[in-house]
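Our preliminary data section would be incomplete without showing what the modeling component actually yields. Below, a chain of 104 amino acids is followed by its predicted structure, encoded as C-alpha cells that our downstream tools consume directly.
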Amino acid sequence: MFVIAAGCVVGLIVTAILGGVGFATTAKRAKTHVHAWRYFAVASGVFLCLLIVGVYVFPYETVKPSSDYDILARNLFLQGLGYCAAPGVAGLLAAIAARLSSPK
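Predicted structure:
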C-alpha cells in the first residue's frame, strides 16, 4: 500500500510541475491565437487516453505467487507513478501541440 502511495506522490509532483508548465505555455499562446485552448483541450484528452492505455498495457515483470515481493513492489510503484503522472505529461504534450498549431 505504501509503495502505491509513494508512486502516486511522485506522480502528482510530476503532474504539478509539467501541468503548470503546460498551462503557462498555453496561456501565453492564447494571448495571440484564438484557438489555443481548444487545441490544448482536444490534445490533452487524446494524450491522456493514450498514456493511460500505455501504462495499462506496459509489460511489467511477472510475479510468482507468494514470492518476488520486490518485483511486485516495483510494479506497483511504476503503476502508481504512471497513472498519477499521466495528466501532467498529457498537459505538457498538449501545450506543445497547441504551440505548434497554426494561427487563426
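The two ends are 49 Å apart (CA to CA). The chain is about 80% helix and 0% strand. Preliminary results of this kind motivate Aim 1 of the renewal.
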